[in-house]
Amino acid sequence: MILPIVAYGHPVLRKVAQDITPDYPNLKEFIADMWETMYYSNGVGIAAPQVNRDVRLFVVDSEQIINNLDDDEKNEYPNDKGVKQVFINAHVTELNGEEWAYNEGCLSIPKIREDVYRAESVTIEYQDENFEHHEKTFNGITARVILHEYDHIEGKLFIDYLKPLKKKLLKGKLDDISKGKIRVDYKMMFAK
Fold first, then answer.
1. Which one of 16, 41, 47, 59 has the minimum C-beta count within 10 Å?
2. Is 91 annotated as a binding-site member?
3. What are the pLDDT digits (tens) for 101-130?
């Protein structure tokens, strides 16, 4: 089932999400709905707060980015093959490497894209959909997508990394998004 995506201005996007247990209601169906919603919306990741649930769960498919890079771009990320993965109860344990800029967007903040600086690699502890524990290091674009989605479960948005002047210049567009004055090709939920 395709779920409505919460728009900028909704309070759930600013909450620190809670860990869940294997008995979380209808977890398997919820994860399937998140995948379906993400693909329907042309996203490469989506976090539970974006579909109005304040739990520490997100899904990432960075394979679709890596597979669509041309050969020169693939050489820029030689250690990044991409992942298609569920992350439950994730907690970043380490950030490494130089921060680098990449033009990011967000399904909850449609039609705004900006350069955001993030670390080259992230080490993260998480559980998969079977609640098996993992600690892995990810690099390049995959690390960036993971960090973007991780921010959602920490109550942060990519626009929080922008300089004050840039945020001020975007204020009108952000206000329009929070008021529902925007048209997108997917279902959205606005703050009441």
1. 16
2. no
3. 999 999 999 999 999 999 999 999 999 999
CATH of 5-180, one of 3.30.470.20, 3.40.50.2000, 3.90.45.10, 3.30.1250.10: 3.90.45.10
**Sequence ranges of the domains in the chain:** 5-180
Per-residue pLDDT tens over the stretch 127-138: 999 999 999 999
For residue 152, say whether it is annotated as part of any ligand binding site.
Answer: yes
Tokens 């980015």: give the residue. 65
- Look up residue 1 and give its two tokens: 């089932």
Alpha helices in the chain (DSSP H): 27-40, 63-67, 71-76, 140-153, 164-178
Q: Cα(45)–Cα(108) distance, rounded to whole angstroms?
A: 12
The answer to whether 149 is a known catalytic residue is yes
Residues 6+ apart with CB under 8 A from 71: none
Catalytic residue among 104, 114, 149, 154: 149
